[in-house]
């Protein structure tokens, strides 16, 4: 019984969440009729009563209203949706990156400060994460491995894990073998090795704009210049702009967060990924693809990776378990294509090996079948949280606010009225016990002074109150 | 009772090992009288019967012989000691490093091949290591930390661990605070960050010669040039040669393995460490000090670190738990002196954080008091193994062989007859199921074609037979 009831629960909640999402992203407008109970029941292959349960839940959420003998409608008194930010228009010239002071001030100080309500750092939710179960797996693995668990596991790293990663990548459209993969100590390390493999100090790297400061400061640490490319909040980097940039600058590599860009939440559509790979291949420019959020999609299927369209080995796919499982385990990977031997060697010469027990515990967690259901639960949870936070922002922030509508991940990118300086807001929010990430951190050329990034992963009543408080502060500043 | 008896055992074995070591390193020559039982009993503050036990043990080992009414003497039919290698005389010009092919071929292929008897890679002995106990500690820590154990622990890393490292460094002559320390993913990462903090591509780094290929390939990966400095097998880098090199070359940094150089086993005497720090300070050249073997001393006290004599913050001390505890845990540290903020930032931009559970488990292991007795046992075990392996080499290898007499660590550096090419020997040994490390790997300028490095950590009957077999192969080649 337990199983059946949880299955039923899953179905009606899923239907409710799907409609909630359509309302949230504007596909269903206030006043629109939602599909009839009978039609929905046939379409989703569930009972009438399951659909009714879903619709009652949406009523309880204040989103829809029943009209006698007519069906269910999106409430017309819903606050209207906030528009999305426009495509970005960054500086067209390559820039020396200089983020160090800002990152040290904002991120390293705040990100793990337990006194603050964390709406800033892009950490996954530790309560949602499978940490406890993963730790138990680690204990079992440690006992089984004995002395071996203390030894080096040199690059390319744990074969069982590379096997699991290769299998998992099938759903992203890739056909990889374990030999194609190098285990690293996280996605940042993967990206750093890729950049070192294909660029020399002073070279220019084309990147999406905005992009997470992690990437910017890796460029800075390696002495590389950033060429920020206009990026759409839904479908990512502009190919037209990239083509233009390639014609006017010597570009040594291109770097994108293909699925659910941090902070935009943009997802490059599959045909556009193919076009991106082709475009770069015309000049044999390597594409460094960060797919760290790729498994956290809200739709029915995992978006593909650009690597899936790579015929020349020019795409270097980077990822890790830090957004899905446990950042503290420090396990990531890279699929470096034709640069495999160089990247493996850089891993070896930089840090020899990934942590042995972490690697083996994750491999065991995946092969035991725990990963897939865990990911399903987590995706749903993040989708709900993103929806809830979006709604709270809409309610609490000024009308001129613009807000992204991510289809995966757990981040929101918020454009505030022009008068609001995000660093001033950051200071005021911090004084009020709230951590946010100011927009200055997402461009080497200060493109986003009035933007902030919010993390919905830790959504709670406390977080909701923090959004209200933020709204008040913004109105004072704006 | 159990404790007392184990204490007694410890004392007589310790006395026997000390005398064994004096014989081995030539301080007691064949025919020499060893101290009388009564004198020894007073000197070591143990009972007469304890000293007798020690001397009977040495008789059983075939090292000493009692003469009636006269005392105990070193047996005069002992094979004479092999001489030590001379001070090295490497190429006086800076060199581009190019080790990649050789390292990939030799190290990555062999080091973890269970089919080979491992006398090559400088791995600690997994059976001696406290892996099981450490894993149990990790399990307890994981349960206590809960969700937090899965989260990022950003640079500078776990404070409890930095506290323990600061305390432990007291015995090395340092007075550090936790704020001086950055946790890394191992000593290689520490060294890599230090080099990146103070050198640019193309710069020259003065290093001891021979030095482990780990260092050479880190230089290679960063595009740095190696300036190999003559190094004595007992007391390390020649200050005269270093001074000369500094006068004739622009040196951006100096890098030494101050205590028990890999492969030499040399230990820079404390006054010489002070002089080294002063010499480099005259030109404000940073000293990168690798102390990874420092805790594995055979003598009564831990040798100091050069960092202890650093008044200007120019010494960057690097170490890890990879030779003492568990390489697979991937936890090291660096004390970067005046370069602290840069190194912390490089850690952050390169790999964000060290593995959270590993850090906390080691901190707990240290604070529980398990580390000190563990280290005592391990030091003794390695000392014995080095002594046994030296004896076996002396017996099995040709007379012209020269052999180091390390006072710590678990490595031996062997100079073979000039006709023996260590790469040919490496191939033949491998065919016979034995892994050794050829001397070519310890210089960027092929200084040591007829040298090999041996690791005594895994000493066993099997390893002893392997030394015999190696001796036969060498005689065929020589």
Count of strand segments of chain A? 17
Q: Biggest β-sheet of chain A: count, sense, barrel?
A: 9 strands, mixed
Main interface by residue count = A-B, 63 and 63 residues
Total count of helical runs of at least 4 residues of chain A:
15
Shape of chain A: globular
Supply the number of structural domains of chain A: 3
CATH homologous superfamily heading of the largest domain in chain A: Type I PLP-dependent aspartate aminotransferase-like (Major domain)
Describe the SSE topology.
The structure is a homodimer of 478-residue chains.
Chain A: H1 2-24, H2 37-44, H3 48-60, E1 64-67, E2 71-74, E3 95-96, H4 100-110, E4 117-118, H5 131-145, H6 159-168, E5 182-184, H7 187-198, E6 204-209, H8 213-221, E7 225-232, E8 236-237, H9 239-248, E9 253-257, H10 270-282, E10 287-290, E11 315-320, E12 332-335, H11 340-351, H12 356-367, H13 371-396, E13 402-403, E14 411-415, H14 422-431, E15 434-435, E16 437-438, E17 451-455, H15 461-477
Parallel strand pairs in A: 4-15, 6-7, 6-9, 9-10, 10-11
Antiparallel strand pairs in A: 1-2, 3-7, 5-12, 7-8, 11-12, 13-14, 14-17, 16-17
């Amino acid at each position: 019984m337990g199983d059946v009831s949880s299955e039923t629960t899953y179905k009606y909640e899923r239907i409710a969440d799907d409609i909630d999402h359509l309302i949230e992203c504007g596909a269903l407008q206030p006043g629109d009729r939602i599909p009839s109970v009978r039609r929905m029941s046939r379409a989703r292959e569930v009972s009438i009563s399951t659909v009714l349960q879903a619709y009652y839940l949406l009523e309880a959420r204040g989103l829809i209203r029943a009209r006698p003998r007519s069906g269910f409608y999106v409430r017309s008194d819903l606050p209207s949706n906030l528009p999305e930010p426009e495509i970005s228009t960054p500086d067209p010239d390559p820039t020396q990156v200089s983020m160090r002071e800002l990152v040290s001030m904002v991120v390293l100080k705040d990100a793990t400060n337990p006194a603050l309500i964390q709406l800033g750092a892009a950490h996954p939710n530790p309560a949602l994460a499978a940490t406890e179960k993963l730790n138990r797996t680690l204990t079992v693995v440690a006992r089984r491995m004995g002395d071996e668990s203390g030894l080096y596991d040199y690059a390319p790293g744990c074969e069982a894990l590379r096997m699991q990663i290769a299998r998992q990548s099938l759903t992203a459209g890739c056909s990889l073998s374990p030999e194609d993969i190098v285990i690293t100590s996280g996605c940042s390390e993967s990206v750093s090795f890729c950049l070192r493999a294909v660029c020399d100090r002073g070279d220019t790297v084309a990147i999406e704009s905005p992009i997470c400061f992690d990437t910017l400061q890796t460029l800075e640490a390696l002495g590389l210049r950033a060429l920020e490319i206009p990026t759409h909040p839904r479908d990512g980097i502009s190919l037209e702009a990239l083509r233009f940039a390639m014609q006017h600058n010597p570009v040594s590599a291109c770097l994108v967060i293909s699925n659910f860009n941090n902070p935009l939440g943009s997802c490059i559509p599959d045909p556009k990924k193919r076009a991106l790979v082709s475009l770069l291949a015309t000049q044999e420019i390597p594409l460094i693809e960060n797919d760290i959020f790729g498994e956290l999609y809200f739709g029915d299927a995992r978006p593909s990776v650009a690597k899936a369209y790579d015929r020349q080995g020019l795409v270097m796919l980077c990822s890790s378990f830090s957004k899905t499982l446990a950042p503290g385990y420090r396990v990531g990977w890279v699929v470096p294509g034709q640069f495999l031997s160089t990247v493996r060697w850089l891993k070896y010469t930089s840090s020899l090996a990934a942590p042995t027990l972490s690697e083996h515990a994750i491999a065991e967690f995946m092969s035991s079948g725990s990963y897939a259901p865990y990911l399903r639960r987590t995706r749903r949870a993040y989708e709900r949280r993103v929806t809830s936070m979006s709604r709270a922002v809409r309610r609490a922030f000024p009308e001129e606010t613009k807000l992204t509508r991510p289809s995966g991940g757990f981040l929101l990118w918020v454009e505030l009225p022009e008068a609001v300086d995000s660093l001033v807001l950051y200071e005021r929010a911090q004084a009020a016990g709230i951590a946010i990430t100011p927009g200055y951190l997402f461009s080497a050329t200060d493109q986003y002074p009035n933007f902030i990034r919010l993390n919905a992963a830790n959504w709670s009543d406390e977080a909701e109150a923090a959004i209200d408080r933020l709204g008040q502060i913004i109105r004072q500043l704006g």
